[in-house]
Structure to design on (351 residues):
């Protein structure tokens, strides 16, 4: 498989701090911010300076290392340090409730803390190194996802994607856009339709930025247009990312994904999820158990700081919806494409 290099590295540890792309100001400005404290990381995750399940996971791991650095400066015994740091780690895991990669990565750091035989300085070092390891692993995992996913993209095919599951949703390369990148590397006639993705327009602001930077032909459409283009035969397959996948394959992703999946099913267009195994939460049986984040009314009522509706109108703003496993043709992971029956194929992937 030809390797396609993304030009973006979303987040990386830089010695004593975490450096990340500020995604709240894209595409007008492309800037990196330095996160120096655990509380700054908590806010960066909560306010979506960093976003996308895999990137949030790495950010959470970095956040635990930042808290460890801060606590190292206090006059604490080792037991006091460990106790306070575990509390800080649990707090970091609450910064966003839906993306399971955050909880997964924080648990990886908690395992380091609990199992370490080192002194305080050694624990801090081990947490930094583990954060860097998770960073590097993410890129390699995404490349494997991309290569497996490219196998289902027909020559000259047009891929529809929703929201952003690209380099900016991961450390680099991407999950759904990793599939696009790997497919395009072997077949430059591959094209993309990107859903705008209301209310935060990640598809418009971020996906189109990534793909045009990489020279991949991309057409932006609004969320309500996907079935129109499906009916006209202009979409060959759908590939999206995921924030949490239940043990039966039900998948939480950005709000509007469920609608795309229904339209794809009606038009006999394969609908794929691209996600690392760390996004699969085998502790929950179905998507009914996934906590859906409710976000602020201003995300819906305002665009670029300007109100677009009657000021007193009622707003409900769920950040995610859950696509039932029956609508999913396959889940593209670093271990291959999982197919129905998902209870069996997911279990086999972990074994």
């Amino acid at each position: 498989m030809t390797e396609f290099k993304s030009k973006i590295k979303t987040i990386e540890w830089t010695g004593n701090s975490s450096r990340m792309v500020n995604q709240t100001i894209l595409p007008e400005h492309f800037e990196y911010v330095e996160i120096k404290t655990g509380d700054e990381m908590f806010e960066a995750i909560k306010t979506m300076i960093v976003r996308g399940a895999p990137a949030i996971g790495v950010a959470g791991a970095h956040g635990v290392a930042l808290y460890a650095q801060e606590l190292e400066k206090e006059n604490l015994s080792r037991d006091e340090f460990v106790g306070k740091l575990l509390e800080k780690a649990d707090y970091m895991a609450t910064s966003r409730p839906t993306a399971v990669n955050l909880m997964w990565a924080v648990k990886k750091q908690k395992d380091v803390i609990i199992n370490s035989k080192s002194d305080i300085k050694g624990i801090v070092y081990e947490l930094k190194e583990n954060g860097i390891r998770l960073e590097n692993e993410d890129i390699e995992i995404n490349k494997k996802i991309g290569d497996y996913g490219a196998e289902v993209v027909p020559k000259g095919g047009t891929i529809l994607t929703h929201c952003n599951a690209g380099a900016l949703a991961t450390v680099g390369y991407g999950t759904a856009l990793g599939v696009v990148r790997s497919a395009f590397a072997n077949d430059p006639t591959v094209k993309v339709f990107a859903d705008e993705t209301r209310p935060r327009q990640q598809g418009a602001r971020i996906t189109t930025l990534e793909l045009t930077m990489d020279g991949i032909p991309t057409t932006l459409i609004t969320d309500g247009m996907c079935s129109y283009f499906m009916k006209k035969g202009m979409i060959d397959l759908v590939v999206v990312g995921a924030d949490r996948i239940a043990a039966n394959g039900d998948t939480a992703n950005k709000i509007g994904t469920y609608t795309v999946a229904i339209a794809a099913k009606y038009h006999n267009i394969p609908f794929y999820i691209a996600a690392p195994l760390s996004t699969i939460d085998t502790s929950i049986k179905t998507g009914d158990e996934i906590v859906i984040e409710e976000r602020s009314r201003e995300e819906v009522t305002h665009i670029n700081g300007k109100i677009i509706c009657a000021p007193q109108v009622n707003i409900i703003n769920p950040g995610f919806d859950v696509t039932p496993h029956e609508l999913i043709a396959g889940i593209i992971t670093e271990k291959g494409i999982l197919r129905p029956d998902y209870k069996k194929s997911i279990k086999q992937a972990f074994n």
Notes: The longest helix spans residues 120-150.
